[in-house]
Sequence to fold (76 residues):
Amino acid sequence: MSIGLAFGNRASGPYKTPMRVCIVAVDEEPSTFRGKDGTERKVLACAVSDGCKVVRVVCYASNLFGRLKVCQLPYL
Fold:
């Protein structure tokens, strides 16, 4: 599955089919997000590419922040 196909389906949430992407940029620091229930959570934004398109992705799992690293090209 490509980014173009995923966005063409207009689906939201986790996709059932995995995508092979490369992280091309990561925010320096997490941002604070306040949910509808008033709880604060940390989020980290990054940009990913499949070689044709680049999209912004928000990671809500703070335990994964350390794993989000910019990849070395070529990645595909």
About this structure: The chain has a mean pLDDT of 86. The two ends are 13 Å apart (CA to CA). The longest strand covers residues 40-49.
